[in-house]
UniProtKB/TrEMBL annotation, chain A:
<keyword id="KW-0735">Signal-anchor</keyword>
<protein>
    <recommendedName>
        <fullName>Signal peptidase subunit 3</fullName>
    </recommendedName>
</protein>
<dbReference type="GO" id="GO:0006465">
    <property type="term" value="P:signal peptide processing"/>
</dbReference>
<comment type="function">
    <text>Essential component of the signal peptidase complex (SPC) which catalyzes the cleavage of N-terminal signal sequences from nascent proteins as they are translocated into the lumen of the endoplasmic reticulum. Essential for the SPC catalytic activity, possibly by stabilizing and positioning the active center of the complex close to the lumenal surface. Essential for viability.</text>
</comment>
<keyword id="KW-1133">Transmembrane helix</keyword>
<keyword id="KW-0472">Membrane</keyword>
<keyword id="KW-0812">Transmembrane</keyword>
<dbReference type="Pfam" id="PF04573">
    <property type="entry name" value="SPC22"/>
</dbReference>
<dbReference type="InterPro" id="IPR007653">
    <property type="entry name" value="SPC3"/>
</dbReference>
TrEMBL record, chain B:
<dbReference type="InterPro" id="IPR019533">
    <property type="entry name" value="Peptidase_S26"/>
</dbReference>
<dbReference type="GO" id="GO:0006465">
    <property type="term" value="P:signal peptide processing"/>
</dbReference>
<comment type="subunit">
    <text>Component of the signal peptidase complex (SPC) composed of a catalytic subunit SEC11 and three accessory subunits SPC1, SPC2 and SPC3. The complex induces a local thinning of the ER membrane which is used to measure the length of the signal peptide (SP) h-region of protein substrates. This ensures the selectivity of the complex towards h-regions shorter than 18-20 amino acids. SPC associates with the translocon complex.</text>
</comment>
<keyword id="KW-1133">Transmembrane helix</keyword>
<dbReference type="InterPro" id="IPR036286">
    <property type="entry name" value="LexA/Signal_pep-like_sf"/>
</dbReference>
<keyword id="KW-0645">Protease</keyword>
<keyword id="KW-0812">Transmembrane</keyword>
<dbReference type="InterPro" id="IPR019756">
    <property type="entry name" value="Pept_S26A_signal_pept_1_Ser-AS"/>
</dbReference>
<dbReference type="GO" id="GO:0005787">
    <property type="term" value="C:signal peptidase complex"/>
</dbReference>
């Protein structure tokens, strides 16, 4: 029993020391490798984001429990950026440190809509939605050069995009460390990109009247 | 085998045992007070959670520890949040995919998705198409790997939990012994 006592007291003393040291180390690492305020607040002057086409269509989601017919905005964009930090000395950015586990990139569309519950009192609802994202695990893979369309649905709460004139597109990044605090920032942004109204087919009746026809409801790939 | 120990136990006074019990109670309530205090500071009812599913891999694995806080400003797209489903059970740690803010007040409609999942979380909401800000437990601010694995092991093997509690109880009982 005497041996047990010394063993347990040694064990508790040792584990107390280990835990305190680990706690201090983790805090220090997190503090040292957190991105600088300038990195957090600024855009990357070398990043290039352009929206090449925007189209509003009527569709139905294929893989969602919500199978309602609603308007979707299909966007095609070009993105070119370098996050490796290799150009840090030449005005580039250093998002990668030895404590970086991965960087999560997301392309976000943000727009204003009128909240129907505001009942004409001018209530503006702010909306943001991710239309594309990527996980970058290695520093070497942090050169992004792509030209593609949405990965996720861009849809409105009110199911229709009528009345929404434009949206801004921004590339967000999220640095996830091996240990420590998560950091968020913006990489590049476009200005206001206009959202076109849904194209309606207009048919002329024999008596001269025109009638709008609904196009067929497209099955969306997401 | 435990003759000495049993004899010693019988010799103990009620007052001594109660004093020891009080010491244990003090330690436990101090820990609880610290945890609840942290809860108040970060404005989240569960400021420390352990990742229980693999739906956020490769960022978070089962057994990682997350530090949460509830920000006073609006939650943003890309934030990683923890919420409880209507089905009860484990809290879910996923990333926000869409936010639609109320024009007044602090409420938001939120859509989430795990990084490792192909589709968003609508099936987990139990009916509504969105989460509300009031259902969010907190936003993930910090991360420590592996530390929470003990919780997972204890949950998966409840007998181990009882054995550990028993061991702690026994060691507390005999901690006042001088020999």
């Amino acid at each position: 029993m005497v041996l047990m006592n010394t063993l347990t007291s040694r064990l508790s003393a040792w584990s107390g020391l280990v835990l305190s040291v680990l706690l201090f180390l983790c805090s220090a690492v997190s503090f040292l490798t957190y991105p600088s305020p300038s990195t957090l607040k600024s855009l990357n002057p070398r990043a290039n984001l352009t929206v090449t086409s925007v189209e509003t269509i009527l569709g139905r989601q294929r893989w969602s429990p919500n199978r309602e017919e609603q308007e979707f905005v299909e966007v095609r964009f070009d993105l070119a950026t370098d996050l490796t930090g290799g150009l840090a000395g030449q005005g580039g950015r250093a998002l990668w440190t030895w404590n970086t586990k991965q960087v999560f990139l997301s392309l976000v569309a943000s727009w204003d809509s009128v909240d129907p519950r505001a009942r004409g009192k001018g209530g503006i609802r702010k909306n943001e939605a991710v239309l594309w994202d990527r996980i970058v695990q290695r520093r070497e893979d942090a050169r992004v050069l792509i030209s593609q369309g949405n990965k996720y649905a861009l849809r409105e709460v009110g199911k229709r995009w009528a009345g929404i004139d434009s949206a801004n597109f921004t590339l967000h990044w999220n640095v996830m460390p091996h240990v420590g605090m998560l950091a968020y920032g913006h990489e590049a942004t476009t200005g206001a990109i206009p959202i076109p109204a849904r194209a309606r087919r207009v048919r002329q009746l024999p008596n001269g009247e025109t009638v709008e026809e609904d196009e067929e409801v497209r099955r969306m790939p997401y | 085998m435990f003759q000495n120990e049993l004899a010693w136990l019988r010799r103990q006074s009620v007052r001594g045992l109660l004093a020891q019990f009080l010491t244990v109670l003090t330690v436990l309530s101090t820990s609880l007070a610290l945890y609840k205090g942290l809860s108040c500071v970060v404005d989240s009812e569960s400021p420390v959670v352990v990742v229980l599913s693999g739906s956020m891999e490769p960022a978070f694995y089962r057994g990682d520890l997350l530090l949460l806080s509830m920000p006073s400003e609006k939650l943003k797209v890309g934030d990683i949040v923890v919420y409880n489903t209507v089905y009860g059970g484990t809290p879910i740690v996923h990333r926000i995919l869409e936010t639609h803010d109320d024009y007044e007040g602090n409420d938001q409609l939120i859509l989430t998705k795990g990084d490792n999942n192909d589709s968003d979380d609508v099936v987990l909401y139990g009916g509504p198409s969105w989460l509300r800000r009031s259902q969010i437990v907190g936003k993930v601010q910090g991360y420590v790997p592996y530390v929470g694995y003990m919780t997972i092991v204890l949950n998966d093997y409840p007998k181990l939990k009882y054995a550990l509690l028993g061991l702690i109880g026994v060691s507390v009982l005999f901690s006042g012994e001088d020999s």
